[in-house]
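Hey L., structure's done. Input below.
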Amino acid sequence: MKIAEPELATKAKWVISTQLIVSIIVAVVFLTKGTWESLAAVYGGLVSICISLLLLWGIQRANVAAKVDPGKSMRILYLGAVQRFVLVLGLLALGIAFFKLDPVAIIAGFALAQLGYLLGSRFKAK
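Output:
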């Protein structure tokens, strides 16, 4: 099933908005532990949002490529999956090792924003 570009953009806005709302809620919860923990949760949520944006970009590129070469379209999607995996590992490691952010808050922010991605992608925007 091919997704029309406007429908894809609307769905992407809905999903990213859901992730952002979940990230803010998680940050507020971690604010009870401290400001740095709250910032770590926001960082984790932003990592999740970044990979969602990268996925959207890859899907748009694959849609364009599919018109010419379906094989190239699949390569774009597979390469995008690897890129997102490496980006997640790199950004989470950067937050923990370089910025010295709370690992539990980062992972919680990331995981719950991913849950927001799942919920946002399952329910239609009104």
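The chain has one domain: 5-122. The chain has a mean pLDDT of 92.

-- N.
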